[in-house]
């Protein structure tokens, strides 16, 4: 059988060793790397139907994988107005005013990426954006995607006129008179207003998702760990996959929320393994807290406002029981845990589950924004994967700790921000990702942030926690070798070797050697998933 694809003139970079392989070409058969060698020997394997690509000295790495992203939610959310570039309230008001002028009568204004730092010392509330939003139903998602601002008209349409009680740590923030301020914390509260807005058709959602995934492939991404299966996400993945339009390999973890009973857990367990050629349900996503920026994280000591004192699960012991049930069923878990108390409780729960059943499962903790030394050491001891998003640190906090996140925590805890270096040095596997749509999905930007720790909007500013920076090859491992390990696929993915998946990312130069501040501009030459070209530079 002749190969389906041959690439020639390549420099093959192995992140596991940090060096280049002594080959310049490889072949792909049935979606797997078939052979590696010199150009002449590999070219001789070609048949009439073989696609041959001369890379002209470009650098091939194992396919880059985003360790944490939300494709369907992000495709829908980012269809609205992008506020992520607004650095102050005036810029936000100007952007909303321009968008309002283009609205049809009665139409909703949707926006995303709102940074709470623009409010300065003012409360995060809809009144700060009056009169721009007066009379307009508007939903403004804050950058953390755990909170949003709803305009008075949106609240009125949704029938939200006071506080509510939820099964999770969600809140409709109200003033002293019990009137909603517009700030909605966590999904249960946000959904009350979101479902009152007009919804896109299924075909619109499918088209938006397809466009986003194609754009991701053009940045060099070959795969992602999708951390939700909400709504009809799985059906959309299946539809694109069956049509040959899924350009990324997706590993999907559906949510388990507080209050999940035995039937809900059984359904999640039975869902494992469902999938198609390029997508599969694998694992379960849980939440142990919210975010520091909106005061819903779980900290061992309150923040400066007396907030972030409770777990997302009203009964943390119930979370521990769920982890034990999923562990016994052989299901990997990935838990959102940002604050030190949340991370500690997740590790305690995994330790208890392992004690009761020593099955070798690679459980994960997502985010890990501030933790003390004794917690850092436990990741390697328990075999728990650390899933980190370095651009959350670089783009939403400041080295001088004047940002909302740092001010809430205080100097000591803000000084323990995103400890990628310490976790890796302690022996933990550190998987890197974007958490898109929270931060941009371009993987070269994620790799750059892990190395320079500077705000991407102004690289002249000082780095936040430069001692936690990773080297170029360490960062690259965080999006190749380590995601494969976290998925239990280290024998079939994350390497350039015969028999491994032919998921390839190709760049004009070595992404581990290009200066970190220049890395986001490195040209992507080719992206390949399972031997199928999903992106090709126009001049290649």
Provide a compact summary of the structure.
Helix content is 30%, strand content 20%. By secondary structure, it is an alpha/beta fold. It is globular and about 80 Å long.
Task: Give your account of this protein's structure.
This protein is α/β, with parallel strands linked by helices. The chain has 18 helices and 25 strands. Strand 9 (81-82), helix 3 and strand 10 (109-114) form a beta-alpha-beta unit. The radius of gyration is 23 Å and the shape is globular. The mean pLDDT is 96.
List keywords for this structure.
alpha/beta; 540 residues; six-stranded mixed sheet
Write the layout of secondary structure elements.
Blueprint: E1 5-8, E2 11-14, E3 19-20, E4 25-29, E5 32-37, H1 39-43, E6 51-54, E7 59-62, E8 64-69, H2 71-77, E9 81-82, H3 89-101, E10 109-114, E11 138-142, E12 147-150, H4 152-158, E13 171-174, E14 180-185, H5 187-194, H6 202-218, E15 221-226, H7 233-242, E16 249-252, H8 262-271, E17 279-281, E18 284-287, H9 316-328, E19 333-337, H10 340-356, E20 364-367, H11 373-382, E21 385-388, H12 390-396, H13 404-409, H14 411-414, H15 420-425, E22 430-432, H16 443-452, H17 472-477, H18 481-486, E23 504-507, E24 524-529, E25 532-536
Parallel strand pairs: 1-6, 2-7, 8-15, 9-10, 10-11, 15-16, 16-17, 18-19, 19-20, 20-21, 21-22
Antiparallel strand pairs: 1-4, 2-3, 4-5, 7-23, 11-12, 12-14, 13-14, 23-24, 24-25
Helix pairs in contact: 2-6, 9-10, 10-11, 12-16
């Amino acid at each position: 059988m002749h190969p389906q694809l041959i690439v020639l003139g390549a420099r093959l970079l192995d992140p596991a060793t940090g060096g280049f392989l002594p080959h310049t070409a490889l072949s792909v058969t049935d979606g797997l790397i078939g052979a590696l060698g010199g150009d002449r020997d590999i070219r001789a394997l070609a048949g009439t139907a073989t696609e041959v690509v001369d890379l002209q000295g470009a650098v091939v790495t194992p396919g880059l994988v985003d360790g944490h992203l939300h494709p369907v939610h992000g495709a829908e959310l980012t269809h609205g107005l992008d506020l992520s570039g607004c650095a102050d309230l005036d810029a936000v008001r100007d952007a909303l005013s321009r968008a309002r002028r283009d609205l049809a009568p009665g139409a909703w204004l949707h926006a995303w990426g709102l940074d709470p730092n623009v409010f300065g010392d003012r409360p995060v509330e809809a009144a700060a954006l009056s009169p721009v939003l007066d009379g307009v139903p508007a939903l403004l998602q804050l950058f953390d995607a755990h909170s949003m601002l709803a305009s008075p008209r949106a609240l009125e349409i949704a029938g939200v006129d006071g506080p509510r009680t939820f099964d999770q740590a969600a809140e409709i923030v109200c003033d002293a008179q019990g009137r909603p301020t517009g700030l909605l914390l966590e999904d249960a509260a946000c959904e009350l207003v979101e479902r009152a807005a007009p919804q896109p058709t299924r075909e619109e959602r499918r088209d938006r998702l397809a466009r986003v995934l194609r754009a991701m492939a053009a940045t060099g991404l070959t795969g992602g760990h999708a951390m939700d299966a909400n709504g009809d996400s799985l059906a959309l993945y299946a539809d694109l996959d069956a049509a040959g339009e899924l350009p990324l390999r997706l590993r999907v973890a559906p949510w388990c929320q507080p209050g999940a009973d035995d039937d809900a857990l059984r359904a999640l367990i039975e869902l494992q393994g469902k999938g198609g050629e390029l997508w599969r349900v694998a694992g379960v996503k849980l939440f142990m807290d919210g975010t520091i920026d909106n005061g819903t994280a779980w900290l061992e000591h309150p923040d400066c406002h007396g907030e972030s004192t409770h777990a997302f699960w009203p009964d943390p012991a119930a979370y521990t029981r769920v982890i034990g049930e999923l562990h016994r069923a052989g299901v990997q878990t990935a838990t959102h845990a940002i604050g030190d108390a949340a991370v500690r409780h997740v590790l305690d729960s995994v330790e208890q589950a392992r004690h009761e059943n020593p099955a070798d499962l690679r459980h994960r903790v997502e985010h890990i924004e501030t933790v003390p030394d004794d917690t850092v050491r436990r990741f390697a001891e328990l075999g728990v994967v650390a899933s980190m998003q370095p651009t959350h640190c670089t783009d939403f906090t400041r080295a001088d700790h004047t940002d909302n996140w740092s001010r809430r925590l205080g100097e000591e805890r803000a000084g323990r921000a995103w400890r990628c270096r310490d976790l890796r040095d302690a022996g933990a596997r550190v998987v890197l990702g974007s958490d898109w749509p929270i931060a941009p999905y371009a993987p070269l930007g994620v790799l750059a942030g892990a190395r320079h720790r500077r705000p991407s909007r102004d690289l002249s500013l000082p780095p936040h926690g430069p001692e936690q920076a990773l080297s170029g090859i360490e960062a690259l491992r965080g999006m190749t070798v380590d995601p494969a390990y976290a998925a239990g696929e280290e024998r079939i993915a994350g390497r350039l070797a015969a028999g491994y998946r032919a998921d390839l990312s190709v760049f004009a130069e070595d992404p581990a050697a290009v200066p970190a501040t220049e890395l986001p501009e490195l040209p992507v030459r080719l992206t390949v998933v399972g031997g199928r070209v999903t992106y090709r530079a126009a001049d290649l």
